[in-house]
Structure to design on (595 residues):
């Protein structure tokens, strides 16, 4: 073999090794060589899950040598059932379905962090100027067993009024109901109130901050089995969630762009909605206890299923060790 | 002899089939891992929930009977509108070729769309109050329409020719020959339409069930959805059983009426 041919062969081999190494590194970086997949659930077009959208958009779920698969669910109960049948390992959803399905359905999940606090609003017809005007009218809620329904009950108590609560599921139908004067108002999570205002249908009478400041809303939960099997991955995910939450506070404009992309809403709607959402990963245990107590009091958690020691139940339900706080 | 006849009339086989189904259900429950047993109710817990919902009611004190009456009222209204629209349109489509050609593409395009897909449009078009009626109408309308068309087309041409020979005009032929001849198929369409309308009730009441008799929202679909979103499966199954029982009774009433009205049809009485 001539010297020139030898050089060519070596060059080709070196080229193959280099390209192969780059591909292998990229495959590892992106998680394609990962021994298993982490399945993450979240709800469709819910701006409360913005930390997840930011982390995905920024590629923060890549780079740890873990493969992630993201699954959308229409509502929290459906996502909790997905947890129950082992379809997902980790997910973002409301504290109410998480609690109800943990207690009533036996889905073994643990709350790792809060996704947001507050983030709902009472939108009313333009003819309504005060809460007393809302007395004896019909107001839509996203269902009897939701935080928003509870918030409306608090409004009734705080302002000494009574409204006829009409459940409309999904909340995307509320704006039409208000426009058609089928209801005098609705209470829903963002971005539905912001979208309604943007569309010129109704106005915000009360934010959930004014009803119950810092109330718990969506949370990041993990299946207990996954937590036990992969605490290192859970720690990585929680740190990613914290970084994404910090990013929203630092760069709200860029975060709104990402929120608009993932919820398929106009950026101005998302920016407006974000004004009424507190993105905070700290878990409000007393707040969750209040929600749990409400669910017990109204009967959504039947007497036979009520935890014997509520504080012990909350200790097993909430695990903030990965937040480092 | 009379005793033997009476025993023969007892629905023994029907009762045995239900008992066997309950036994299989219990066996499936017992075979499940303990973790899954929390999410899959056994017959006893469902029976207990059925009794509790029937006597005490849900968290708004609405009993199973109130929910059933609310759903049934919506069904009857939606079904009545489906009959009033589906039957005449079916007649026109089968008697006038031009009408058939105008409506056929629309019917064939709209027929396969599941009622639940119409929910957002139903709210906009018919508001929360009438949206559920629209969903029930959608479920019942097409079986009534298609069976009416099929019934008219199956009319024996000899009967039509005889009527015409005796001087009957178009209206008389339709009212005295075609419609009576088509009625058994129409009746089958009504029975199927009522069943499909009843099945659409869950989708319809998920739109947002209003309160018909005070005490908060009512309807079996609403009851089921509400308990499902709370992770409570036993009351969900109790509601499902109520839906099934009502459907069974409705179907039996229809079948018996059909047998009495159309004794002359061998296919019906056989």
């Amino acid at each position: 073999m001539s010297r020139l041919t030898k050089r060519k062969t070596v060059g080709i081999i070196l080229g193959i090794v280099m390209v192969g190494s780059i591909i292998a590194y990229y495959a590892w970086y992106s998680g394609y060589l990962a021994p298993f997949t982490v399945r993450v659930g979240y709800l469709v077009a819910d701006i409360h899950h913005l930390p997840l959208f930011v982390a995905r958009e920024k590629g923060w779920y890549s780079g740890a040598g873990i493969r992630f698969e993201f699954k959308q669910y229409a509502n929290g109960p459906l996502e909790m059932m997905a947890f129950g049948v082992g379809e997902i390992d980790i997910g973002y959803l409301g504290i109410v379905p998480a609690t109800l399905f943990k207690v009533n359905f036996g889905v073994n999940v643990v709350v790792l962090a809060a996704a947001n606090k507050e983030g709902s609003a009472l939108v009313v017809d333009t003819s309504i100027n005060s809460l007393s005007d809302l007395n004896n009218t019909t107001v839509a809620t996203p269902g009897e067993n939701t935080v928003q329904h509870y918030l409306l009950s608090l409004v009734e108590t705080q302002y000494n009024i009574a409204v006829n609560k009409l459940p409309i599921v999904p909340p995307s139908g509320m704006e039409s109901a208000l426009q058609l004067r089928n209801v005098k108002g609705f209470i829903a999570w963002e971005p539905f109130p912001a979208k309604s205002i943007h569309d010129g249908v109704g106005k915000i009478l009360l934010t959930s901050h004014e009803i119950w400041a810092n109330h718990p809303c969506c949370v990041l939960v993990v299946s207990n089995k996954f937590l036990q099997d992969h605490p290192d991955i859970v720690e990585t995910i929680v740190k990613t969630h914290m970084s994404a939450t910090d990013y929203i506070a630092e760069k709200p404009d860029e975060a709104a762009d990402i929120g608009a992309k993932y919820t398929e809403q106009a950026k101005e709607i998302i920016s407006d909605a974000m004004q009424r959402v507190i993105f905070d990963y700290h878990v409000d245990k007393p707040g969750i206890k209040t929600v749990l107590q409400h669910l017990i009091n109204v009967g959504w958690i039947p007497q036979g299923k009520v935890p014997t020691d509520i504080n012990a139940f909350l200790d097993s339900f909430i695990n903030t060790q990965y937040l480092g706080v | 002899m009379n005793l033997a006849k009476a025993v023969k009339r007892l629905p023994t086989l029907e009762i045995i089939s239900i008992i066997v189904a309950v036994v299989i259900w219990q066996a499936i429950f017992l075979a499940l891992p303990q973790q899954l047993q929390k999410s899959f109710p056994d017959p006893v817990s469902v029976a207990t929930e059925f009794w509790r919902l029937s006597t005490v009611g849900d968290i708004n004190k609405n009993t199973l009977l109130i929910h059933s009456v609310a759903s049934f009222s919506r069904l009857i209204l939606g079904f009545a509108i489906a009959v009033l629209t589906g039957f005449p349109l079916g007649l026109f489509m089968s008697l006038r070729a031009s009408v058939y050609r105008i409506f056929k593409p629309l019917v064939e395009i709209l027929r396969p769309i599941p009622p639940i897909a119409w929910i957002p449009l139903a709210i906009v078009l018919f508001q929360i109050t009438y949206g559920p009626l629209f969903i029930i109408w959608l479920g019942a309308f097409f079986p009534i329409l298609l069976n009416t068309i099929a019934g008219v087309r199956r009319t024996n041409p000899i009967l039509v020719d005889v009527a015409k020979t005796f001087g009957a005009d178009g209206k008389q032929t339709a009212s005295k020959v075609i419609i009576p001849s088509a009625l058994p198929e129409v009746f089958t369409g009504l029975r199927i339409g009522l069943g499909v309308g009843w099945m659409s009730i869950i989708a319809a009441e998920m739109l947002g069930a209003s309160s018909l008799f005070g005490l908060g929202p009512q309807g079996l679909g609403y009851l089921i959805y509400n308990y499902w979103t709370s992770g409570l499966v036993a009351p969900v199954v109790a509601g499902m059983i109520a839906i099934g029982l009502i459907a069974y009774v409705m179907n039996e009433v229809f079948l018996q009426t059909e047998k009495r009205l159309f004794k002359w049809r061998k296919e019906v009485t056989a």
